[in-house]
Amino acid sequence: MLKVNVRQLDNKGLDIEGVLEPCELELDTLREDSRATGFKGGIAYSLHVSLVSGGVLVCGIIEASGECVCDRCLENFEMPLENIEVCHYYENVEADEIDISPELREDILITLPMKMLCSEDCQGIKIPPAESGRANCAGKRQADSQDSIWQSLDKLKLKRQT
């Protein structure tokens, strides 16, 4: 969790920097939610917190490195998430502290692409050449030395009930 003590803020504001573990932003269970499998290392942040018009303004940058699975080839790859700009305004803050972790988590998740690709020119899963008896590349069925699976059904004699 990343909490900011509002009572410590003055007119100049407060600069905070550091590294959060993925579990602190509930990103350690990301595997269940998406094709991203986790984060390599920590999540770095550099934020400025200030009092503005009766509220608290948090602006800055967060960076992380995601471990993902390619949607085309299913290979693992590393996706750098660099310079994610964040800006959140909390109005009517009455508590001594505000937790900005949920918003930072959302900023990271929104940055992840809908289709994760290891590279723009990824060709996808490598499919081996067709085996005998299977459809070839042109879509034509090759001769099969075994009986067709449908031949057994063709021999089946059913009685009609009226």
Report on this structure.
The protein has 162 residues and is mainly beta. It has a domain at 3-111. It is built from three helices and seven strands. Strands 2, 3, 4, 5 and 6 form a five-stranded antiparallel β-sheet that branches. It has a two-stranded antiparallel ribbon with strand order 1-7. A hairpin with a 6-residue loop joins β5 (55-69) and β6 (76-91). The longest helix has 11 residues, at 101-111. It is elongated. The protein starts with a strand and ends in an 8-residue tail after the last helix. The relative contact order is 0.17.
Low-pLDDT segments? none
Mean pLDDT: 81
Major β-sheet profile: 5 strands, antiparallel
SS class: mainly beta
Shape: elongated
Instruction: Output the number of helix runs.
Output: 3
Question: Helix-strand pattern, N to C?
Answer: EEHEEEEEHH
- Quote the distance from N terminus to C terminus: 73 Å
Q: What percent of residues adopt helix (DSSP H or I)? A: 10-25%
Rg for CA atoms: 28 Å
- Topology, number of strands: 7
Beta-strand residue fraction:
35-45%
What are its keywords?
162 residues; mainly beta; two-stranded antiparallel sheet; elongated
